[in-house]
Write a structure and sequence with these properties.
elongated; mainly alpha; 3 helices
Amino acid sequence: MSENRNQVDIDLDKYHALLDKLDEANDKVKELEKLAAELKTAARNATPREEFTFEGLFMDDNKINEKSIIGFISFFMMILFGLADLAAGWSGSGFSITDTIYVSFVVVTLGCFGISEAGKAFSKQ
């Protein structure tokens, strides 16, 4: 009796059948993961993109942030004025920018980006 206590009978057919089912399940999981990745890619590519039109910029129901556009243009003008001042300084000519104009571009840039960010912060609930 003590000899049979440590012995276990294994049905090899049942064991192999369970291993086959496990392999099939693993294959099915891999197939489903691949399908899920393909569906995510397809969903990402299927979202309609809104075309930018100049007329759409003036519509009330657009997704264009006008404040950011004005801020970027103002920032670009600040860079152009700075580069023109540097080029004139290197060439020795006296190109002078009125401080009022430059400060105006700074105020517009900061105002536009500040209003845009404040709008984003307060619109989240």
